[in-house]
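Two quick folds needed for the group meeting slides. Do the first one here.
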Amino acid sequence: MFLVDSHCHLDSLDYQNVHKDVADVIARAHEAGVTHFLCPGVDLESFPNMYEMVKDFNEVWCACAIHPENINEGNRDWKDDDLRKFLALDRVIAVGETGLDYVCTPETRDLQIPSFVRQIHLAVETDKPLIIHTRGSALECMDIMKAEGARDCGGVMHCFCEGKDEARKALDLGFYISFSGIVTFKNGENVREACRYVPADMMLVETDSPYLAPVPKRGKPNEPAFVAHTARAVAEIKNIPYETLCEITSRNFSSCFKVSLS
C-alpha cells in the first residue's frame, strides 16, 4: 500500500531538536506507512540547497517556484531561464509552490500577480503541473489560472482552506485538491464541507510540514509521518476505508504529477 505526502518542506524541519536528518524523517514516515514525498521550493535562492538535501532519496520528488510571500522589489525581475534550469533537473516534477497570498503579504499584490502569470506560462511551456498556494486570494487566483491557460498543465490546489464553491471552481479547471491537517481542525468545517464535495478521484493529502500538524498532533511541529492522521480523517469524512483512501490518493498523485510509484 502506498501513501503520499504530496507537500512537505523537508528542508524546513527542525534538525537541531526534533530530527537527526532527512533520512530520519523518511524512516519515521515509513514506520507510519507513508511511502512517497513531494518537497516544493519557495524561491530560486534556497532551491539548490533543498535539492541537494533530498535528491538521492528515490521516494522524494521536488518542485521549484517562487512563493508569493517571497516576491519583493529585490527579486521581482527573476529570470525565466533560472527557473527553467531547475525545472530540467532530475526528479523535479512540478512548478511550485506559486500563487497569490493577500493575507501575509498584501502589500506586494502588484508584484505577485505578474510573477504568478510568468510561472503559469513556464509550467505550460515545460508541461509540468502547478502547485498552487492561495490565502485570501482563491477566486482571483483561479480567475488568473483560467485566463492564462493553467488547465493545459494542470496541477493541485495545495493545503486547501476554502469551501465548496471554491472547490467547484478548482475542479472546473481540472485541478486536484489537496487536504492538509486543517481538515481535522475544530474551525475547519468549511474545509470538511469541501472534502465531502470533492470526488475522491480528485483528492490528494499532505502535511505542509513543518506547519499545520493535524489532530491529534495539533500544536507540535508537523512532519510527513503525520499525513496518516489526515488521510484517516479524510477517509472518515468520505466514508471509505482508510486503505482505499490511501490507494486512491496515491493513484491521483501519480496521475497529477505523471510519475510512477514503486
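Then this one, please, same format:
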Amino acid sequence: MTMKQDPYELLGIERTFEIDPDLLQKRYVALSAQHHPDKFVDPIEQMDAAEMSSSINTAFQSLKDDELRANVLLELMGGPTKEQDKSLPPTLLMEMMEVREEMEEAVEQKNNDVVQKLRQWAIEEREEYLGMLGQLFAKIGKDQVTEEQGKQIRLHLNSLRYIERMLEQTPEEV
C-alpha cells in the first residue's frame, strides 16, 4: 500500500504502533466535521472537501485496524511492503494447512467444540503476533528501520495475515 499522505500526520496522531483508539476516534470525528462537503457552498470547495473527507476516511481506516496500521507504519519507516517481501516462518505454512484441514472437518461434522477451540487458538496467535509487533516497533521508536528490523517485522506481519485470513474465513459457530 503506497501512501500518498501520512495518515498519522493527517489525523494528528503520534507515529507509533500503539495508539489511543479514543483519541483516534476524536480526531477523525473533528476532522470529518471540519471538512464535510455540505459545509461549503462553492462547488470547487465542495470537491476539495470531498477529496479531503475521502483522505480522512482512508487514514482513519488504516490506523484503526492493527494489521493495516502496522503495514502503514513499517512502510513509513522505510521497511519492505508485503509485495516486496512475502517471507514466512518455515513451519507456518504446514501448521496452517493442518489447522485449516482440522477446521474444515469440524465444520463439515458440525463439531462446534473443535471450531471454537481452533478459533480461540487463532485469536491467541493473533494477539501474540500483535504483541511482538508492538514490542518491535517500540524498540525502534521513531527511527527508520534497518534492513534486518524491516525483515523481522515483515515476517511477523505476513504471518499475522495468514492468521487473520483464517479467522475471517472461519464461522463463529456451526
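Slide caption for protein two: Residues 129 and 160 are 6 Å apart (CA to CA).
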